[in-house]
C-alpha cells in the first residue's frame, strides 16, 4: 500500500492523483493498536470538495460511522486511507475520483470525476477475534481470596469509550456499583473482567463491543459497536454462602478458658471496611465495648466471631453483610452490602455465675489457723485489670491494708478470697465484676471489669461475732457491776470502765473486737452502756449483749 504524504503546495494543486493522499496531522503519543484490514472501526468525518463545500458529515447526523475496513464496504480511497490509523488519530485524506465515486458520482450529491476531501478522526478499533484486555494497575500485598462466579461485588468505576469519552462513573453518584458476578446481571465483558480480582485491586478492563452492548449500543451515551474501557476499583466482595472468617493475630500462651455463649465480654476494636476505611473504633472513645455474646445483643457475625476467644487475644473477624448490616447498611459510614472487618483485642470476660477464682501461690507449712469472717486481718495487695493495667497497690502506702472480714468493708470477691488463709500465705484472686465493682465500676475501675488481686496475709486476729465489741472467753463474773465499780462509789465512769476491760483482756478472760484502735472500741462500748449519756454507768444501765438480745426476742414474741 502506497501512502503518499505531500507538502502544502502540492495539497493546494495536486493535479491528477494515482492514490490516496494522507496527511496524519495529529498522531496520539500512545498508539496501542492500528486499524488493519478486517478490523471493525468507528469514526467521525467531514467530507468536502476542493472548494471547501461540504457534501457529507457524520457530525451533522449526530452519529459515528461504524464498519469493517479493507474489505470493500467503503469507497476504495476511504478503505485505504483509514488503514494504519490509531484511536484518536486525525487525518486529512484526498481521494481521487477513480478511488471515490468515479465518472458516475452520486446523483444530486457528488458530481462525476470529483476529488473528495475527508477530515477523519478514529474513535474505535476492534476485531471479532479480540479478547478482553485486562491490565492490573495496583494490587494489595495481601490477597487471601479473589472474585469467583456467584460472588457479590461492590466496586467503583470510571467508564469511557476507547477514545477517552466518559459515559458513566460510580464516583459521580457517590456510591459503589453492587451486583453479582457471573449470573448475567452484567455485560459479559465485565462479568469476565472482575473474576480473579482482590479487594482493593485496581484494573483497566477494555471490552470489545460483542462483549458489551454490541450493535445496539446503550441509550445516547454508548454508540453501537463501541469498545468500552473501565477503570475499576474493587471495594469488597463476598458470597451469600460465606460464614464468618477468623484470623488469630495473637493468642496468649496461657489460655485457661475460652469465651462461650452467655459470657460477658469487654473488648476494644477497630472496625474497617474491606478497603481499609475506618468506620468505628472503641479506642477513639477510650472505652471498651461491653456485651454478652451469643444472645443477639450484637450483630450475628460478631456473636459468632467472639466465640472461643481467650483473655488478651487479638483476633480479626471478617463478617459478610448477611451477618452484619445487610443490604441497608448502618448510618452514613457503613454502606449497604458491606463486608466488615473487626480487629479485636479481648480485655476480659466472665459469666454471671462465676465464683472467685483462687490460686494459692505459697502456703506455709504447719498452717493450723486460718482466717474466718469477723477476723481482723492485715494484708498487702496489688490490684490490676486482666490486661495488666495496674490499678491499686497497698505497697504505695506505709502499712498494709487492715479490715475486718465479713463486715462489708471490702468488695465481696476480695473478702471471699481472704478467707481460709494462713498468715504468710500468698494468693492470686480473679474477681468477676458481680463480686467486684459491678457494671458501674468505681473510681479508677472500669464498669464490668474483672479484677486480678495478688494478696499476701501479713497477720490476723481472731474476731468476735457480728454486733459484739467484746466477748468473754468463759462465763462473765457473777457480780460484774461490783467488780467493774473499782472505787465502789455506785457509778462507773469511762476511766474505770476502760481500766476494767483492759484488765480482762490482759488476763485472757475476754477479747475486744480486733481493730487498729482499741481505745475507740472501748469508748464505743462505754457509750453503748451509758444509756442516758451522763458520763457514768449505773447498775440499771449495765447489760450484757446476750441479755439485750434475749430481751429483744421476748419483745418480738
UniProtKB/TrEMBL annotation:
The keyword Calcium applies. PROSITE patterns: EF_HAND_1, EF_HAND_2, FKBP_PPIASE. One of its GO terms (molecular function) is calcium ion binding. It catalyses: [protein]-peptidylproline (omega=180) = [protein]-peptidylproline (omega=0). It comes from the Eukaryota. Pfam families: EF-hand_5, FKBP_C. Keywords: Calcium, Endoplasmic reticulum, Glycoprotein, Isomerase, Metal-binding, Repeat, Rotamase, Signal. Its EC number is 5.2.1.8. Residues 526-557 are annotated as: Disordered. Residues 38-126, 150-238, 262-350, 374-461 form the PPIase FKBP-type domain. Residues 480-507, 517-552 form the EF-hand domain. Residues 531-557 have a biased composition (Basic and acidic residues). It is an enzyme of class 5 (isomerase). GO terms for cellular component: endoplasmic reticulum. It is found in: Endoplasmic reticulum. PPIases accelerate the folding of proteins during protein synthesis. This is peptidylprolyl isomerase. The lineage of its organism: Eukaryota, Metazoa, Chordata, Craniata, Vertebrata.
Amino acid at each position: 500500500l502506497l501512502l503518499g504524504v505531500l507538502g502544502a503546495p502540492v495539497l493546494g494543486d495536486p493535479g491528477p492523483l494515482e492514490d490516496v493522499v494522507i496527511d496524519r496531522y495529529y498522531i496520539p503519543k500512545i498508539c496501542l493498536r492500528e486499524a488493519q484490514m478486517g478490523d471493525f472501526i468507528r469514526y467521525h468525518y467531514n467530507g468536502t470538495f476542493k472548494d471547501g463545500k461540504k457534501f457529507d458529515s457524520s457530525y451533522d447526523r449526530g452519529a459515528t460511522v461504524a464498519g469493517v475496513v479493507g474489505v470493500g464496504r467503503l469507497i476504495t480511497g476511504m478503505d485505504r486511507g483509514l488503514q494504519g490509523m490509531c484511536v484518536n488519530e486525525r487525518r486529512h485524506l484526498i481521494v481521487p475520483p477513480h478511488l471515490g465515486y468515479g465518472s458516475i458520482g452520486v446523483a444530486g450529491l457528488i458530481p462525476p470525476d470529483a476529488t473528495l476531501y475527508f477530515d477523519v478522526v478514529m474513535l474505535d478499533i476492534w476485531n471479532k477475534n479480540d479478547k478482553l484486555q485486562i491490565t492490573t494497575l495496583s494490587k494489595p500485598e495481601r490477597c487471601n481470596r479473589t472474585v469467583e462466579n456467584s460472588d457479590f461485588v461492590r466496586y467503583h468505576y470510571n467508564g469511557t469509550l476507547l477514545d477517552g469519552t466518559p459515559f458513566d462513573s460510580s464516583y459521580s453518584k457517590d456510591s459503589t456499583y453492587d451486583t453479582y458476578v457471573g449470573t448475567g446481571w452484567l455485560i459479559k465483558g465485565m462479568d469476565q473482567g472482575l473474576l480473579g480480582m482482590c479487594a482493593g485491586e485496581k484494573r483497566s478492563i477494555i471490552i470489545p463491543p460483542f462483549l458489551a452492548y454490541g450493535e445496539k449500543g446503550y441509550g445516547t451515551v454508548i454508540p453501537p459497536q463501541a469498545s468500552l474501557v473501565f477503570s475499576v476499583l474493587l471495594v469488597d466482595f463476598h458470597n451469600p454462602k460465606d460464614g464468618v472468617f477468623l484470623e488469630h493475630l495473637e493468642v496468649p500462651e496461657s489460655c485457661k478458658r475460652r469465651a462461650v455463649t452467655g459470657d460477658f465480654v469487654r473488648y476494644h476494636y477497630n472496625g474497617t471496611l474491606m478497603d481499609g476505611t475506618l468506620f468505628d473504633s472503641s479506642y477513639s472513645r477510650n472505652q471498651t465495648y461491653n456485651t454478652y455474646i451469643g444472645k443477639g445483643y450484637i450483630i450475628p457475625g460478631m456473636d459468632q466471631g467472639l466465640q472461643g476467644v481467650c483473655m488478651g487475644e487479638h483476633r480479626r473477624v471478617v463478617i459478610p453483610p448477611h451477618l452484619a448490616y445487610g443490604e441497608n447498611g448502618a448510618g452514613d459510614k457503613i454502606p449497604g452490602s458491606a463486608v466488615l472487618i473487626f480487629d479485636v483485642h479481648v480485655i476480659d470476660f466472665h459469666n454471671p455465675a462465676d465464683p472467685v477464682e483462687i490460686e494459692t501461690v505459697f502456703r506455709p507449712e504447719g498452717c493450723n489457723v486460718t482466717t474466718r469472717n469477723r477476723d481482723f486481718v492485715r494484708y498487702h495487695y496489688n490490684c490490676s485489670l486482666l490486661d495488666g493495667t495496674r490499678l491499686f497497690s497497698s505497697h504505695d502506702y506505709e502499712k498494709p491494708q487492715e479490715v475486718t472480714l465479713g463486715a462489708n468493708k471490702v468488695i465481696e470477691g476480695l473478702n471471699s478470697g481472704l478467707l481460709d488463709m494462713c498468715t504468710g500465705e500468698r494468693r492470686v484472686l480473679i474477681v468477676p465484676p458481680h463480686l467486684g465493682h459491678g457494671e458501674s465500676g468505681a473510681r479508677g475501675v472500669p464498669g464490668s471489669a474483672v479484677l486480678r488481686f495478688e494478696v499476701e496475709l501479713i497477720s490476723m486476729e481472731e474476731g468476735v461475732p457480728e454486733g459484739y465489741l467484746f466477748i468473754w472467753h468463759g462465763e462473765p463474773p457473777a457480780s460484774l457491776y461490783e467488780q467493774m465499780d473499782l472505787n465502789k462509789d455506785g457509778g462507773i465512769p469511762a476511766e474505770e470502765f476502760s481500766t476494767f476491760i483492759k484488765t480482762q483482756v490482759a488476763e485472757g478472760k475476754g477479747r475486744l473486737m480486733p481493730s487498729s484502735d482499741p481505745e475507740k472500741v472501748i469508748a464505743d462500748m462505754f457509750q453503748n452502756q451509758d444509756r442516758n449519756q451522763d458520763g457514768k454507768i449505773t447498775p440499771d444501765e449495765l447489760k450484757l449483749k446476750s441479755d439485750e438480745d434475749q430481751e429483744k426476742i421476748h419483745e418480738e414474741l
